[in-house]
Amino acid sequence: xxxxxxxxxxxxxxxxxxxxxxxxxxxxxxxxxxxxxxxxxxxxxxxxxxxxxxxxxxxxxxxxxxxxxxxxxxxxxxxxxxxxxxxxxxxxxxxxxxxxxxxxxxxxxxxxxxxxxxxxxxxxxxxxxxxxxxxxxxxxxxxxxxxxxxxxxxxxxxxxxxxxxxxxxxxxxxxxxxxxxxxxxxxxxxxxxxxxxxxxxxxxxxxxxxxxxxxxxxxxxxxx
Length: 224
Ligand SMILES: Nc1ncnc2c1ncn2[C@@H]1O[C@H](COP(=O)(O)OP(=O)(O)OP(=O)(O)O)[C@@H](O)[C@H]1O
Hints:
Organism: Limoniibacter endophyticus
Distance between the termini: 34 Å
Order of helices and strands: EEEHEEHEHHHEHEEEH
Low-confidence stretches: none
Helix content: 25-40%
InterPro entries: AAA+_ATPase (IPR003593), ABC_transporter-like_ATP-bd (IPR003439), ABC_transpr_CbiO/EcfA_su (IPR015856), ECF_ABC_transporter_ATP-bd (IPR050095), P-loop_NTPase (IPR027417)
Strand content: 25-35%
Keywords: ATP-binding, Nucleotide-binding, Transport
GO molecular function: ATP binding; ATP hydrolysis activity; ATPase-coupled transmembrane transporter activity
Bound molecules: adenosine-5'-triphosphate
Strand order of the largest sheet: 6-7-8-3-9-10
Domain ABC transporter: 2-224
Shape: globular
Number of helices: 7
């Protein structure tokens, strides 16, 4: 479980998140809000990419500010732009990169790479140069690179923003099928319409925390 206790985030003298306390337990949670409302900052706090200025974030009791590495083993993070995530020139090398940190033996690495490529119908791309993939393919490979680590929770920061309709649907299906818990920051309201919980952030504060039918309508009202 992710526990956020009295968290505020400041950059210089600017307050981006103000006194947020939440327990994130549901299987599918969406974070929505206007541009600049603080959603990505919130997401980055959840796996220790960002430490809170005030308060604390814990994952199963582990404080992100004390052991970010242990937290990152539990909480994977998918960036909006896969260019931030793909580092190696060949698909299979990129997938192997994260696994090395887990110190798995080579047979287990191989098993996981084959399994994730098969599961997402990507086997033909195994030896493919990553820079020749389309934007949509890059995003799918970037997500596969997080899933292969088998984190318990996955945070997605606007995973469909750069994608065409077909790839948006593909990523939506990937998220839907995940056995893990997922927390998704998005402007794509269709993506999260069936989620269990939607948190609306406005000007750094949680203004609605409810089921989608209520929270998404409040978001639409706020944007009107
Ligand atoms: N590292 C940083 N240093 C300074 N300011 C930052 C930093 N990270 C974010 N900010 C500022 O915090 C505010 C909130 O940014 P954030 O990216 O969290 O918003 P967002 O809700 O995700 O926006 P969008 O929907 O446009 O992606 C912005 O004004 C941004 O410029």
